[in-house]
């Protein structure tokens, strides 16, 4: 996204607005998920068109047609992946996580397929490490419910920031 600074400044600022939206929504959803173990539809559903419009406008402003395909594909692939996980083990993943995956897939797909892979990996790595810490500190067990949304958001955010 930073490569747009010199070549397509309008696209750069649209990406900046999309990232600001991600930070705002990500913090909001993380706090709610930590406190209630829920990711509300009233926040997730409006995030799809808001992020989509900003990222699509950025791709159009930069005349970067490949990003249009990768952002839509990223959202679809990540949503389907989390949906399959939900089908396999419903107690392990809430449907809010599935819906959030689509939003994060827009962002990760926009920057590239490898980011989608690494963002997903980072979420599971961070969530797994947190589970190990809970078990090691005797504050939880292998059956303890962990809000996964914050790990998804932080994983995606780290990969976007470091990439």
TrEMBL record:
Q: Which domain of life is it from?
A: Bacteria
Q: Where are the transmembrane segments?
A: 12-31, 43-62, 68-88, 100-133, 145-162
Family to which the UniProt record says this protein belongs: Belongs to the peptidase A24 family.
InterPro entries for this protein: Prepilin_IV_endopep_pep, Prepilin_peptidase/N-MTase
Which GO molecular function annotations are given, in alphabetical order? aspartic-type endopeptidase activity; methyltransferase activity
- This chain's protein is named Leader peptidase (Prepilin peptidase) / N-methyltransferase
Which one GO biological process term can you cite for this protein?
A: methylation
- Pfam families named in the record: Peptidase_A24
Q: Which UniProt keywords apply?
A: Membrane, Methyltransferase, Transferase, Transmembrane, Transmembrane helix
Which lineage ranks, top first, belong to the organism behind this chain? Bacteria, Bacillati, Actinomycetota, Actinomycetes, Micrococcales
Report the residue ranges that make up the Prepilin type IV endopeptidase peptidase domain in this protein. Answer: 21-132
Query: What are its GO cellular component terms?
Result: plasma membrane
